Amino acid sequence: MRGWPESVVRDIIKKLPRTKVYFDRILLSPAHVFVCRIRDDITKERDEFPVDVFNTAGEFLGTGSLPGRPLFVSRTRMYFERSDADGNVWLSVRGYSFGAIS
Q: Parallel, antiparallel, or unpaired for β 89-95 and 49-55?
């Protein structure tokens, strides 16, 4: 921030959050925004993924967890990539509601 007034730089630094939260991806559905965060323990292979849900106006609706990292989210369904021990890959489609996410 070279060349900026010191008071402006201090105000910007004060507004930065002390704790940083890293996210993996942001998915948009027609009515909601899903911010998929990075798992707390990335060494576990089958851990649920934390997700924060917002409406399209930016209001926070809640936090939940998903059984995997979604590829795509529609109004009522989430799409996940699955594979088996032989390396076969398929698309898994799951319905969702906010009672199930929150």
A: unpaired
